[in-house]
Write a structure and sequence with these properties.
The protein has 316 residues and is an alpha+beta fold. 63% of the residues lie in helices and 16% in strands. Strand 4 and strand 5 form a beta hairpin. It is rod-shaped and about 115 Å long. The relative contact order is 0.08.
Length: 316
């Protein structure tokens, strides 16, 4: 689907259907074969470049040749929860500047109007491109904030419950953070290259100053993502060690209980096999109200002595 936008009083306004294909700013989402042919013809875009723009695994980069500029950057998708696991993806966003027209291409069916909203005036297509880069950086900032809050909540749940499901959600969040760090590093390198070649790419001094601010925001976002990832990795390792230590302590307690009960079970089994009642009547000749309490007392003494022996051997 192709949507056209025109400039009106320093803002972008959606063009009529008749003027959509000739508007200065075009947005193409999930292009079909006819739209791909239109892009290749009107923007002189090769099939290999078009496939690179639509590839979500393509690294951020910029090309400037044959009177056109091709920019590929990364943008975060919406954060979702699937089967109690945090799902977050990064998509590729392509931009092509040819003569006095700007084309955005991405292979996802999402709303792109929010990218075009700009608090500053947009007078030409390069202002629009700068605004999209700025909005992309802000989106990464917002997603990192949400993921940091989710990480803190998961850490508290892991401490309280020590459940493996919570730990798996923490692993899933760490996986998403790895993709974010890679995407942010690529975007930061892209913005740096655009900033260092503003004159060659046709940006004026005012646009260069805005790019400088975006460059600083992008670098800060990269640093924040790296710090968050490092903290998450260390905290995940600590949680795994803590859960392993808790499990070891639990198994130790169960083993001690089993060792304490073992001699008592042995003696009780021997007494049961020898028919303690007959044995008592023939040899001890004690009432059952006395013999059984004495047996239980004897078993308790044996268990206590076993406990003391294990304690002296530093097993508990």
């Amino acid at each position: 689907m192709i949507t056209g936008y025109v400039f009106e009083n320093g803002k972008l306004v959606e063009a009529d259907e008749q003027e959509a294909n000739t508007a200065p700013v075009l947005i193409c989402t999930e292009p079909d074969q006819i739209e791909k042919k239109f892009i290749q013809t009107d923007f002189h875009l090769g099939i290999h470049t078009l496939q690179s723009v639509l590839d979500e695994n393509e690294l951020p980069r910029i090309e400037s040749r044959d009177n056109k500029i091709v920019v590929i950057c990364k943008h975060p998708m919406h954060i979702g929860i699937i089967d109690r696991e945090i799902e977050s993806r990064v998509m590729s966003l392509g931009a092509v500047i040819f003569e006095d027209r700007l084309l955005f291409i991405f292979n996802e069916d999402i709303s792109f109007k929010e990218f075009l909203y700009a608090p500053m005036r947009v007078e030409d297509i390069r202002d629009v491109l700068i605004n999209v880069l700025h909005r992309t950086t802000l989106h990464f900032h917002e997603h990192l904030r949400c993921m940091s809050l989710a990480m803190e909540q998961l850490e508290e749940e892991v401490i309280e419950t020590a459940d493996s499901d919570q730990l798996m959600r923490l692993f899933s969040l760490g996986k998403s953070m790895t993709y974010y760090v890679s995407a942010l590093n690529g975007n930061n390198a892209l913005i740096e290259r655009i900033y260092n070649n503003t004159q060659k790419l046709g940006f004026n001094e005012s646009q260069k100053e805005i790019l400088d601010d975006i460059r600083l925001d992008s670098a800060q976002c990269c640093q924040e993502a790296q710090i968050t990832t490092a903290i998450m990795t260390k905290m995940t390792d600590a949680r795994i060690s803590l859960m392993g230590n808790n499990m070891s302590n639990l198994m130790k307690r169960l083993t001690v209980i089993s060792l304490i009960m073992m001699p008592m079970n042995l003696i009780a089994g021997i007494g049961g096999m020898s028919e303690f009642t007959v044995f008592n009547e023939e040899y001890f000749k004690m009432p059952m109200a006395v013999s059984y309490p004495l047996l239980f007392l004897f078993l308790g003494i044996v268990g206590f002595l076993t406990y003391k022996c294990l304690q002296k051997m530093d097993l508990i």
